[in-house]
Design brief:
This protein is mainly β and 920 residues long. The protein is built from ten helices and 64 strands. One of its GO terms (cellular component) is beta-galactosidase complex.
């Protein structure tokens, strides 16, 4: 028995000796805003100052009720001099005595002094967004140790303040990213730099301490199977090796194939230290006066700018937030993200690697920059922490003038992959990245220029402007221009922070923070869906379902690496009747269409498909994500309205004519129409008065309806104005049927050749509305230059007064324009009524959206028609923070109509049917 025990003990010892040591970690803090550890804390200024308490780490102290909230332009912020003091006790395992022990800070704002057991761990770290560490092996003692950290919100280094603190974003303080201890064996790998090329060539720079004589490298695929042969090579302190792998699966945003590379240090056959790195085989190449090529394919970057931010925790995020952000970007069919304006959390880059998103990683700098000494140190920290991520395809040196040009050469010298360097907002390195240029500037300058065109910020999305508004025009120009490499929208999410000093209100610093496609908590705004359609990698050419339709759709493959036959398609036919939605569906055979080629998608529909109202086609990517659902109307409004609406009942129409009004009663409905102007004056049904009146008022047009006459056409009353080419060229006709249905038809000419909007208004008090139910495209409102992203359907919406980008962030908004109206039921507090149309392309306008507060720019607050409810032939566009609507492209320009004085005169028409019965 004793012999057996000794044998087992020897086997265990041999096994332990033969296994390489891993880098060990012990977190002193939590890992993110969803898992924190309380430390002792004291702050010198602002809320809860000058008293010891506790604070969660990681966190920004403002979000925990300490200090003072500051935005980057706050002049008081640099005078505040807030300093936070942290204390935390910890122990280390007894078996760490022979190891090298580092304390690692993933991010601290801003100047950070670290002491262990009362002794400095090293020099004060200056800079907020970088991973830094200290070797504290000699400072530790057995048993309990004391960590003390002093954090100054603003830096003693003025260049750090210029680069980070004087910027257009929230300025926070505190240890906001995780803190941990790492233990390494005496002989260990210090750094690995990886360059895995699309042709299978793997380059590695490896730096190790003394004590080992060889290193082994083995790649494993996603299933854990060894890929290629194990590489072993003799080692000194630093090695550089190259090996070729046959037919690796390449990394791209469409197919983010990753391998795991295990690096093992040996002394003879004894493994000493092992680390693992994710590897993506891919190549980034810039061809001068041509474009950016990934794996040999010319790219169009569909990108967005993204801050590391969450409303309740400031710059402290979590891996769950990173996953949610990347998934939302990919849901919008984006393929790229720019880090604004500093390096992100490491887990965000991990997620971009694993889910597939191109990254532009940025050394901090807004309009100011680090001095050369400081920037050199921080650039090295960024490079060491981020360099091996295959998702990173660009480096950026600062933003909008915040470029220290003395640092440029360091990017290429320190990056084994030699990725291109960008100066956002500049013409630099063969790239034209100018921000927020007008569409016509882009067409004129871009079409006759020589640089690769890639605006690192465009279509500034303040409130509801920009983003989707204007994107279709810009993208058409970008897609067709060989020199265009796409661009990056500003920006992903509203920068709204929870104010612990203001009862939890969400503060966007007035107009400086509400620039997102999604709200602070990722609420989807209307532009989200427009971007999703415009940036779809499958493009549908315009197609209408009419006589001769055979189920064929011309499509274009705008993927870079995916054949359309790798996607899946389904069709759905839907009918909307008075009680329910009836559907049938089927699968579509995906055609063989290579990237950047065109072809036909053939949908085999049942013979009775014309009995349905709408055809929807859904496409899914190879990994099952919904690309988009395209919606095609089968029945037009005049087919839907039918004869039932105006059918004659046995009830008799009663008509009276006093000095001022036509008074009509039919089937329990009473209507009053002004005899002189022809405007609707009053409506009443069995439930009482419907407060809908004072229309139609033309806009932009003139109400010159005159000389009204009336007559009976069978049992239908017709009230009509008289046409005169000079005096009363706009005409109005009312038809009142015995059923109580009232038809209005207006033939009119706009007041000018160029018009912002055209249509007609009615009065309906906003205080009386509860909601609407309508058939048309929805559920989101539209602008003239943001028409895409909706589907045909029946939509029910409760009233809200949401102003985009302001609390309470209820989306979709209620007020605004809606497209492709068939009918709408207005649900009032006391009475309901319905409006139908028998013509195509009618817009419904619901009230006037609240003007966003705190603005000196009216580009995002477009002019709306007068009145409350409008039925429009043309609607207004919306601009951006820096651009008026007409400078965002043709769709943002005013409407152009024919001059009615020329032959033949062409009038616009509006035909509406009103059902005032109040019945469903």
């Amino acid at each position: 028995m004793r012999l057996r025990f000794l044998l087992a003990l020897c086997l265990i010892s041999m096994f332990c000796l033969s296994k390489a040591q891993q880098t060990e970690k012990i977190y002193l803090s939590g890992t993110g805003n969803d898992q924190t550890v309380n430390w002792d804390f004291f702050v010198t200024g602002g809320m809860n100052a000058n008293k010891w308490s506790t604070i969660p780490v990681p966190s920004n102290w403002e979000l925990q009720g300490f200090g003072k909230y500051n935005y980057g332009f706050d002049k008081d912020s640099l005078r505040g001099k807030e300093i936070g003091f942290y204390k935390h006790k910890f122990t280390v395992p007894s078996d760490w005595k022979s190891k090298k022990i580092n304390i690692v800070f993933e991010g601290s704002m801003t100047d950070t002094e670290v002491k262990i057991n009362g002794k400095l761990a090293g020099s004060i770290h200056e800079g907020s967004f970088y991973v830094f560490k200290y070797d504290i092996s000699k400072l530790l003692k057995s048993g309990e140790n004391l960590l003390e950290v002093k954090v100054a919100k603003h830096s003693a280094n003025q260049s750090v303040n210029e680069a980070e603190r004087k910027a257009d974003y929230w300025i926070f303080g505190g240890i906001y990213r995780p803190v941990y201890l790492e233990a390494l064996p005496k002989a260990h790998i210090e750094r690995v730099q990886i360059n895995a090329q699309a042709d299978g060539l793997l380059e590695v720079n490896l730096l190790a301490t003394n004590g080992a004589d060889k290193v082994g490298i083995q790649l494993y695929d996603a299933n854990g199977n060894a890929f290629g042969e194990k590489i072993e090579t003799a080692i000194k302190k630093q090695i550089r090796l190259q090996r070729e792998f046959v037919n690796p699966k390449l990394w791209s945003t469409e197919f983010p194939n990753l391998y795991t590379a295990k690096f093992t240090l040996y002394k003879g056959d004894q493994p000493l230290h092992e680390i693992s790195k994710k590897v993506g085989f891919r190549t980034v190449e810039v061809k001068e006066r041509d474009g950016v090529y990934i794996n040999g394919v010319k790219m169009k970057f569909k990108g967005v700018n993204r801050h590391s931010f969450y409303p309740k925790s400031g710059r402290t995020t979590s891996k769950a937030i990173s996953i949610a952000d990347v998934k939302l970007m990919k849901e919008m069919n984006m393929n790229a993200v720019r880090m604004a304006h500093y390096p992100p959390d490491g887990h965000f880059l991990d997620v971009c690697d694993s889910l597939g998103l191109f990254v532009m990683d940025e050394l901090a700098g807004w309009h100011g920059n680090y001095n050369t000494k400081t920037g050199t140190k921080l650039l090295a920290e960024m490079m060491e922490n981020d360099e091996n991520h295959p998702s990173i395809v660009f480096w950026a040196n600062g933003n909008e003038g915040g470029h220290n040009r003395e640092l440029d050469h360091l990017f290429a010298e320190q990056d084994i992959q030699k990725r291109p360097l960008i100066h956002p907002w500049e013409v630099f390195g063969g790239f034209e990245t100018t921000h927020y240029r007008d569409y016509n500037y882009g067409i004129g300058n871009y079409d006759h220029g020589h640089n690769i065109l890639m605006p690192t910020e465009f279509l500034h999305g303040m409130w509801d402007g920009g983003h989707g508004a204007g994107l279709e025009d810009y993208w058409k120009a970008m897609w067709s221009n060989p020199l265009s490499a796409g661009g990056f929208l500003w920006d992903f999410a509203d920068q709204g922070v929870v104010r612990t000093d203001k009862n939890g209100m969400i503060d966007t610093q007035g107009n400086l923070g509400p620039d997102g496609i999604v709200g602070p908590y990722h609420e989807k705004e209307g532009s989200f869906y427009t971007i999703k359609e415009v940036w779809s990698p499958i493009f549908f050419e315009h197609r209408e379902i009419a006589n001769g339709f055979d189920g064929s759709f011309s499509i274009e493959n705008r993927y870079a690496f995916t054949n359309i036959n790798q996607c899946t398609f389904t069709w759905t036919l839907a009918s909307f009747n008075s009680t329910d939605r009836v559907e049938t569906s089927g699968k579509i055979t995906a055609p063989n269409i290579k990237p950047f080629e065109k072809g036909v998608l053939k949908v085999d529909l049942p013979e009775n498909f014309k009995t349905y109202d709408v055809l929807n086609i859904m496409a899914k990517s190879p990994n099952g994500e919904t690309i988009f659902t395209w919606s095609f109307s089968i029945k037009r409004p005049n087919e839907v309205i039918g004869n039932e609406l105006v059918k004659n009942l046995k009830s008799k129409l009663d008509f009276k004519n006093n000095t001022s009004n036509y008074l009509i009663s039919a089937n329990g409905i009473e209507v009053a129409i002004d005899k002189t102007t022809g405007l609707l004056q009053k409506v009443k049904n069995a439930k009482g008065v419907i407060p809908f009146s004072n229309g139609p008022i033309l806009q932009e047009g003139v109400n010159n309806f005159k000389n009204f006459t009336h007559k009976m056409d069978g049992d239908t009353l017709i009230i009509s104005s008289t046409f005169d080419r000079k005096e009363n060229f706009n005409t109005l006709q009312w038809k009142i049927y015995p059923s109580g249905i009232v038809k209005m038809q207006v033939n009119y000419f706009p007041a000018a050749y160029f018009t912002t909007f055209v249509g007609m208004n009615f009065s309906y008090p906003e205080t009386e509305i509860k909601g609407i139910e309508y058939r048309g495209k929805g559920p989101n409102r539209v602008w003239k230059n943001r028409m895409k992203g909706n589907e045909y359907g029946i939509w029910k919406k409760d009233f809200n007064s949401t102003a985009t980008g302001e609390a309470p962030y209820i989306y979709p908004e209620f007020k605004g324009y809606y497209s492709n109206l068939y009918w709408c039921e207005f649900i009032g507090k006391n009475n309901n009524f319905k409006v139908y149309t028998d013509q195509e392309d009618v817009f419904l306008r619901l009230f006037t959206p609240k003007k966003s507060k705190d603005t000196t720019w009216d580009n995002m607050n477009p002019t709306f028609p007068d009145g409350d409810i409008s039925f429009m032939n043309g609607i207004s566009a919306i601009g951006t923070k820096t651009q008026k609507p007409e400078t965002t492209g043709p769709m943002g320009m005013k409407h152009v109509f024919y001059d009615f004085e020329k032959e033949p005169a062409r009038a616009l028409t509006m035909s509406l049917y009103f059902d005032f019965s109040g019945e469903k």
